[in-house]
């Protein structure tokens, strides 16, 4: 217990010594202080380090700005008096603000009469240059706290009651509050024509401005000589240069130019008593439906064929305006001969077969390219066809034949291409030599035939065989003859005086030159 009491006594004595030392230090600083500081700095008077750094006079400004942050900000941003003061970066605060002159000393020293307000954020222009400092700077407040906006001082003078916002300088100038420099063209309603000559209050009956109508009718309803009959869009016809100058141009101001016969009409011919309330269709048919003698067959695009100059005049050119030129016999037909269905609803194909399928005498045997043979001048005359491009070129006498000689119908593909098909009745061989007439005959002349037995068969004709007629050997059909062999006995069996005793190979003894000529046999 005694030991604990001793410790407490020691701590108490130590704290007392420290407090005594601090108090002594404060007293010592006051002894060397040149004088009392102003009332605003009194709370730090006993702490010299708050404003001073021992042996570092150049650090004085830093100490000032640490407390006066708003001034430091001005200097840094080059704004306000301290930021705009010439060469402020090289100046010391104490050059202007001398301390230690007593509690009531004035550290802000300048002559209000000679102070240049241009080194502030608010230049004194116009009427402001004539104002007393106290008119803007209140006693007891810092100069920097003076308001900088027009509305801050002139709110009670605002005839617009705040309806136009607080940017007074957009219209007014400091030279004279009533001198207005407002450009009306920057609004949604530029002043044109006569409007430039009127005074503001002629349209703005009070100073609110924002509630003023912007339509002609909004201001000139009482001046409307049409009594509302033409609607409220006065600008459709009138202009602000002269109310009596009617500038409406139907060609320019609408989607329907008045040309031809339309230019001779009056407004009432198409419009009701309120033309601007009408919503008229601009298609011809909307007005001329009862005059459509096509009864709708040609659709509603009347202007495709007709012109506005006169209704009967047709300007449609089939060759120019479509992909199908009208030529030959087509020139003599009427529109409805081809356009059976409404012309603008059903698009016609432009191939011949599309219209003439029922007229096709070939029953589609020749395909659908009718123009390969026929022309549009005449379906039956001047038929072009090159038989040489087919599988049966016309040679010799065939080139002189009429089509009908071979083609009994117009289904040409059904015609036979074999000779015997046409010439069976002309066959003198009675079908003994088969159907391949071309093996001997040619189309130049039926009698100019040529057959080489030695090269075209396996039986060479020599000796007496060269002078015999075909029929002498070919008494039966070629098919029957083909079953015979090439030995003499096959044909001369009945002539064999040996009755077959020496076989069928007669050539061992006899020659083809003469049957009676016998060769010696060893």
Polypeptide structure, described:
By secondary structure, this protein is mostly helical. Among the domains are: 281-350, no CATH class; 358-417, no CATH class. Helices cover 23% and strands 1% of the residues. It has 19 helices and two strands. It has helices spanning 2-32, 60-67, 69-77, 80-84, 150-154, 200-203, 216-220, 250-253, 267-270, 284-288, 318-321, 335-338, 352-356, 403-406, 419-423, 453-456, 470-473, 478-481, 488-492; strands at 172-173, 176-180. Strands 1-2 form a two-stranded antiparallel sheet. Helix 2 packs across helix 3 (69-77). It is elongated, with a radius of gyration of 64 Å.
Summarize the structure.
This protein is an all-alpha fold and about 525 residues long.
- Chain-averaged pLDDT: 82
Number of strands: 2
The 3D shape can be described as: elongated
Termini separation comes to 180 Å
Q: How large is the count of helical segments?
A: 19
Structural class, from secondary structure content?
Answer: mainly alpha
Describe the biggest sheet?
2 strands, antiparallel
Strand-residue proportion: under 5%
Radius of gyration: 64 Å
For the largest beta sheet, what order do the strands appear in spatially?
1-2
Low-confidence stretches: 1-9, 11-26
What is the helix fraction of residues, given as a range?
10-25%
Order of helices and strands: HHHHHEEHHHHHHHHHHHHHH
How would the blueprint of this fold be written?
Layout: H1 2-32, H2 60-67, H3 69-77, H4 80-84, H5 150-154, E1 172-173, E2 176-180, H6 200-203, H7 216-220, H8 250-253, H9 267-270, H10 284-288, H11 318-321, H12 335-338, H13 352-356, H14 403-406, H15 419-423, H16 453-456, H17 470-473, H18 478-481, H19 488-492
Antiparallel strand pairs: 1-2
């Amino acid at each position: 217990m005694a030991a604990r009491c001793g410790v407490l006594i020691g701590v108490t004595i130590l704290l007392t010594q420290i407090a005594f030392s601090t108090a002594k230090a404060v007293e010592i600083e006051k002894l060397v202080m040149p004088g009392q500081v102003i009332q605003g700095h009194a709370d730090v008077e006993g702490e010299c380090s708050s404003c001073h750094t021992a042996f570092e006079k150049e650090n004085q400004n830093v100490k000032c700005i640490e407390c006066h942050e708003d001034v430091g900000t001005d200097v840094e941003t080059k704004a306000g008096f301290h930021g705009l003061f010439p060469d402020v970066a090289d100046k010391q605060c104490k050059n202007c603000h001398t301390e230690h002159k007593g509690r009531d000393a004035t550290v802000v020293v300048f002559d209000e009469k000679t102070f240049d307000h241009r080194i502030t954020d608010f230049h004194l222009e116009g009427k402001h240059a004539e104002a007393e400092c106290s008119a803007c700077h209140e006693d007891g407040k810092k100069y920097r706290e003076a308001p900088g906006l027009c509305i801050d001082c002139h709110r009670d003078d605002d005839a617009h009651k705040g309806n136009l916002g607080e940017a007074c300088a957009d219209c007014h100038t400091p030279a004279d509050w009533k001198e207005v420099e407002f450009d009306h063209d920057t609004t949604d309603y530029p002043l044109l024509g006569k409007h430039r000559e009127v005074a503001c209050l002629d349209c703005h009956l009070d100073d609110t401005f924002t509630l003023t109508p912007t339509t002609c009718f909004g201001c000139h309803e009482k001046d409307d000589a049409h009594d509302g009959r033409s609607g409220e869009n006065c600008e459709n016809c009138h202009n602000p240069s002269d109310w009596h100058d009617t500038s409406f141009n139907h060609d320019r101001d609408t989607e329907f130019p008045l040309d031809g016969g339309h230019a001779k009409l009056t407004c009432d011919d198409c419009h009701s008593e309120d033309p601007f309330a009408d919503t008229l269709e601009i298609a011809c048919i909307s007005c001329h439906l009862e005059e459509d003698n096509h009864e709708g067959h040609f659709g509603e695009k009347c202007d495709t064929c007709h012109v506005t100059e006169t209704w009967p005049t047709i300007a449609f050119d089939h060759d120019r305006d479509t992909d199908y030129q009208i030529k030959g016999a087509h020139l003599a037909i009427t529109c409805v001969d081809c356009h059976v269905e409404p012309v603008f609803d059903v698009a016609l194909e432009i191939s011949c077969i599309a219209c003439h399928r029922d007229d096709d005498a070939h029953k589609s045997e020749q395909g659908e390219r009718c123009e390969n043979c026929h022309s549009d001048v005449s379906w039956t005359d001047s038929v072009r066809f090159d038989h040489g491009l087919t599988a049966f070129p016309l040679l010799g006498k065939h080139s002189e034949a009429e089509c009908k000689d071979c083609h009994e119908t117009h289904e040409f593909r059904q015609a036979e291409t074999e000779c015997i098909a046409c010439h069976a009745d002309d066959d003198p061989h009675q079908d003994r030599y088969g159907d391949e007439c071309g093996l001997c005959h040619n189309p130049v002349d039926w009698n100019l035939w040529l057959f080489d037995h030695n090269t075209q068969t396996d039986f060479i004709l020599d000796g007496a065989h060269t002078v015999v007629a075909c029929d002498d050997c070919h008494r039966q059909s070629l098919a029957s003859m083909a079953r015979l062999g090439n030995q003499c006995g096959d044909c001369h069996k009945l002539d064999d005086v040996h009755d077959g005793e020496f076989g069928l190979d007669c050539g061992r003894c006899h020659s083809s030159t003469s049957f009676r000529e016998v060769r010696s046999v060893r």
